[in-house]
Structures are given as structure tokens and as C-alpha cells.
Amino acid sequence: MKNFSWLPTNDPKQVIRISRVMLACGYSILYFFSLALFYWQGKVPGRILFHTGLIILVLIVGFYLVFRFNINKKFADQSLTSLQLLTSIITMQYVIYFAPEARIVYVMFLLISFMFGMLRLGTRELLILGVFALLGYLGLSVFRYLSDNNSDLLRMELLTWFVLAVTLPSFILMGARVRKLRSELRDVNYRLEDSRVLVMRDELTGVFNRRYITAAMQNEKIRSDLGGGPFCICIMDIDHFKKVNDTIGHLAGDEVLKTFAKSVEMSLRETDIFGRYGGEEFVQILTNTTLEGGLTHAERTRNQVEKILFP
Cα–Cα distance between 42 and 18 in angstroms, integer? Predict the structure, then answer.
């Protein structure tokens, strides 16, 4: 127990899933307190409130343990959204059978449950769960009428069922629309990211281009002026590059540029910025580096490049 942590330290996705479960559990607790208000008004039997609280506690602990010990990863839907929604529907239908006067709580929290589900589930899964909720509510209403022959209560239950039958499909269709918009937004973000990379990168070598390097030098100058420490700029020019183009061809010259850029990139620190300034000229910005450190780095890079062999 000494090394136990409430959240996994090496699985960010699992942390997000557990956070979502805890948010859903928070709404379950809110549901319980809503029922407690109805109990206070004599609308919910005490034993039903107790049973509901016990069920909610078991579900909270159970789902937490399932996610904390990675049992959920054995399923196709690792978020277990369908199972969470199904258990919440069954729990609320248990309550509504024994406490029909709390039907408003059932309607509101059923819609809230489907709001959670529509962000993770497909339209087909939501429709199946929606049909289950509607048929379950209708079946419970009819079964209760057959037991107590209370026609007034049956009319109220059928009116409530009709409201649900109208609003729940609207929620599901709205969920499908939200998922489509999220998918379109994600595609747009991907395209924008690709465009941003193209704007920043040199098409041939893949390193930063002149525009980005110029802006980076200006930003580094501002940072240094504000007390951020010294920096150095290494300007690199490939000797006899024109001869390569003239005697072997531009394709060979392109290969030289790409190989050179890749070799230099391998020696960069995380804070360094390297890019193609134009033609066979490259620039490297060395942050937090003195002149002596810059000269040492430049000589080391020169020796490294000198050893490159071109077939």
C-alpha cells in the first residue's frame, strides 16, 4: 500500500478515463441527494433511498477499481461508456418503480446520462440504450398498474413516458450532430497543423525555413536583451556545393543538402534552432551559449560533417 497511487502515473489516457468516471460519479451523488429531498417530503421510501445509496456506492467503487487496475483495457470500448450508462438507467428505473412520484428526477438525470453518452458513443449504441430506457419505463408503468390498478398514476406515467419518447431521440440526434461537428473540427485542426508545418519548414530538407529562422533570431535577441542570457548564431556554408550541382547534377546536390541537414540535426540540443537560410547556407541559433561555447560547437559540427561519405 505504501507505493499505491490513486491515479496511474504512467498512463495519461487512463487518468483521463478515471477523471471522467469520477465526474459521472459526482452526478450519481447529486442524484442521490435529489432523491433525499423527495424522501424528506415523504415521496421516496426510506428503504429505497438506502438501497439506492448502497448501489451508487458499489458502482463508484467498482468502476474505479476496474479502471485503476486496467481491467477496462480488456474491452473494445475501454471507456466502458455503454456499461456506465446502462447501470445508471437500471438504477434509476429501480427507484422509479418504487417511488413514481420522483419521476421528474428520473427524467432529468436520464437526459444528463445521455448527454455524457453522446460524446463517446455512436448513434446506434445510443439508440439501443434509448429504446431500452423507454421500453423499461413503459414496462414498469404497466406492471405497476397491473399490481395496484391505479389508473390516475398510470396516466401520469404515460404522460411522462410520452415526454421522454419525444425528447430522448432529439438528444440522440443532437449527439450525432455534435460528434460530426467534432470530427470536422478535428480534421480542420489537422489541416491547419499541416499547413503550419509547411509554412515553418523547408520543403527539401525538412528543417526550419528562412522565415522561421529570421523570426527566431528576433525573438532570441529580445529574450537576451531582457536578461535571458547570451546566445550565438552559427552560419554554415557548404564548400564547393556549386561544383556538385554542375558536375553530378541537382539531384545529387539535393541529396547533399538533405544529408548535411540530417547530420547537423542529430547534434542539436533541445533548445537549439536550426534551419536553411537559402541555397547551401544554413543557420543555427544556440541559446544560452557564450562565444567560446559557440566556437566549440561549430568546430565539432564541422568535424562531424567532414566525415560524411556520399556514395
Answer: 36
